[in-house]
Amino acid sequence: MKKGTMEERIYDRQVTKLSLSCRVVDEQQIERHFNAADLNELYRFEPDGDNQEIPPVPKDRLLAELWKRQKQWIFSYHMHDSLLKNKEEEELTEEERKAAWEEFENEKTASIQTGFSAFFPTVEQMNNLLNHAKTQLTVQNPELGEEEVMQLASQRVQETLKRIRKGGEYYQRPQGGLPTRRMIRHISHSQA
């Protein structure tokens, strides 16, 4: 969840509602997560003014009677299901759908790093690859000494990188500097 986003505000309100319900219904003492100003913001009422429109006659007779008798207390109403209706006038045309797919594909390919630097992992990623290869070798060959494991692991990583560069495959830099599954798969298959 990112700071300052709508998602954070919704989450904060949900926590407030849950803690309030625990306090009232379950009589629990929940830690206060928000200050008084934050909570007062939730209770602030700002009416829209006197722009009350005359709504269409509701299909529900009880609602129609209630509206007729208590309209000074009811600003407006809507049927909940109408909020979830498919609006055909807002559907995309064939050209708009094609353009959206093209934009999606362009964004997808742009997020993959290409060019000269795409074939070279960062130092952190190289260390992660090397550690992965060392772990595999140690598990598979417990009789090997530390120097032998290091030498074989270095060879495997180098072979993997050569194979990737030679094959024209690109190296996508993942988040956090961890090796990709493709890189790990290459190291694992280098054993043969």
UniProtKB/TrEMBL annotation:
The keyword Glycoprotein does not apply. It is found in: Nucleus. Its main location: nucleus. InterPro entries: ARIP4-like, P-loop_NTPase. One of its GO terms (molecular function) is ATP hydrolysis activity. Belongs to the SNF2/RAD54 helicase family. This is Uncharacterized protein. It comes from Darwinula stevensoni.
